[in-house]
Amino acid sequence: MKKKMLILYCSQIYRTILPLLFIPLTIAILGPEQYGLISFMTMLLSFLALLDAGVSGTFIRMISIHRNNILEFCSVIKLYNRALGVFLFISILLFLFIYNFSDVISSQWLNTSIDYETTKNAIEIIGFVLGVYYLKLYICSFFYGVEKQVVISVWGCIYT
């Protein structure tokens, strides 16, 4: 229990301090306009929670309640897998939408002096990251439900 708490606290501290240390360095290396693209992606990542619509929280509760009853747990896992298919479909649609409209986003939405091709490529990469991140949000609900917060903390430290 103490080891688990220590890992969780260290993970939170690491995930809080690391961006604070690297933001000035990132701005110094990339410049303010390129860092603006990173901020744009961060804003879009925060909006993905709205697409979840509470489904992940529901599965966290269902998995944690029924994890000791094998029959109920199997039915929850079947439902979880069906919903995973829907989340995968939405992730792919999200990526394809941003990828296909990257030229419109980079030329008409964003007001930047970065060359068009670089901005377009950055938007395409952002689309991929958003699709993967949206799927990750849902997959993490399973780990929270089976109380594997350490796995999620380590995963969070890696992608931070």
UniProtKB/TrEMBL annotation:
<keyword id="KW-0472">Membrane</keyword>
<feature type="transmembrane region" description="Helical">
    <location>
        <begin position="83"/>
        <end position="102"/>
    </location>
</feature>
<dbReference type="Pfam" id="PF01943">
    <property type="entry name" value="Polysacc_synt"/>
</dbReference>
<feature type="transmembrane region" description="Helical">
    <location>
        <begin position="37"/>
        <end position="63"/>
    </location>
</feature>
<keyword id="KW-1003">Cell membrane</keyword>
<keyword id="KW-0812">Transmembrane</keyword>
<dbReference type="InterPro" id="IPR050833">
    <property type="entry name" value="Poly_Biosynth_Transport"/>
</dbReference>
<dbReference type="InterPro" id="IPR002797">
    <property type="entry name" value="Polysacc_synth"/>
</dbReference>
<protein>
    <recommendedName>
        <fullName>Oligosaccharide flippase family protein</fullName>
    </recommendedName>
</protein>
<feature type="transmembrane region" description="Helical">
    <location>
        <begin position="122"/>
        <end position="146"/>
    </location>
</feature>
<dbReference type="GO" id="GO:0005886">
    <property type="term" value="C:plasma membrane"/>
</dbReference>
<keyword id="KW-1133">Transmembrane helix</keyword>
<feature type="transmembrane region" description="Helical">
    <location>
        <begin position="12"/>
        <end position="31"/>
    </location>
</feature>
